[in-house]
Amino acid sequence: MKTPKIKDIKVIFTEPDNIRLVIVKVLTDQDGLYGVGCATFTQRPIPVKSAIEDYLKPFLIGRDVSNIEDIWQSSYVSSYWRNGPVLNNALSGIDQALWDIKGKMANMPVYELLGGKSREAAAVYVHTSGDSNEEVGDKMQAYMEQGFHHIRVQVSTPGYSTYGNKSAQTGKNTAKNKDVSKGPIPITSWIKEYDTKKNYAHPGGIFEPKPYIRSAISLFDYIRNRFGYGVEILHDVHERIPPILGVWFAKEVEKYQLFFLEDLFSPEDNEYFKMVRAQTSTPIAMGELYSSPHEIIPMIKNRLIDFIRIHISDIGGITPAKKLAAMGELFSIRTAWHGPGDTSPIGHAANLALDINCYNFGIQEYSIFGEKTKEVFPGYPKIKDGMMWPNSKPGLGIDIDENLAKKFPFKEREYGGAWDTVRRSDGSMVKP
Q1: What's the fold here for domain 122-393?
Q2: What three-state secondary structure class fits 137?
């Protein structure tokens, strides 16, 4: 039987629910046989499209679709300089599509190709946030009634910008603090006024570490007093606080028994994880900003983290992710693949294939899809009782309705979709 070859590679832009998604479709010379993958780098989609259409596509046309490993390895080094979110997302979209094709050829779900099921479904966590502890608690209650057992919690810091709370005010509205007993009085001259008619990917604001820490600890205390210790809570620092404060914070929250504390430091400050590990047992998740599968290896082999938080399209797809998961298993470190709103349903299907197969799966981040997104991506993963359930369809079990996707073109964004700057009260920049 003739082995199918790559005939064409298409890049599809779509934005059904105000999140820019980049989808790759690999077509073969066998009628009706194709695969889909997620290549979403929502802040820089145009370079990803160029990397695929101008470089990877001509490099891969005519290649045997069965040789996923060889295609990945040769594509990875084809530009000589490798890694980075642009090239790796481009490679990921193709890699996921090839796994989808292989599953269809074998008439098996991708998780079967990887070795079969380690579990029937994957536990997920959802996000809740609010401007007060009570608001966060009420939203938690609603999620718990829907069957969710793992919930990420974030709360606004009064008078300042806050990561993870969509209702938190931005711009000059974050400079409300005038009480020096609660935090510094901010300088606001650098902040622009935001035009409410324009589309900003992530408006800037003023952030202060210690007021944020006090608000977070107050939230954890409130949640444990209200709900007890049965429900699992998670929290994302998003690398915004100075490293030594991060060490103190991880120690201070140990008594609240978080499922994990995420992105305590920026990738540039990884050495501080040694201090955390020596002083506290608070579980640590790290990895979403890594754009090379090799960056997290020292964290795994030195057991400095408990959860691998890699965004699989940022490291090149399923092929490198399954290897990282296997390495993590050897060190008893679990997976918690990054799955925010800018992971398409196809990306979630790829995450799910790994979750179902990998013995050392820990938890899966999940962003609830909007109705338009569900229509564009038939076969999207379903949620029941706080679990994401795979279907039994061959490949990734999901598709894209291209005609419907065209009805949701990218909207114009300020700065091309780049995040605006968050700063301290004195005007200095805050990561990320």
Answers
A1: TIM Barrel (3.20.20)
A2: helix
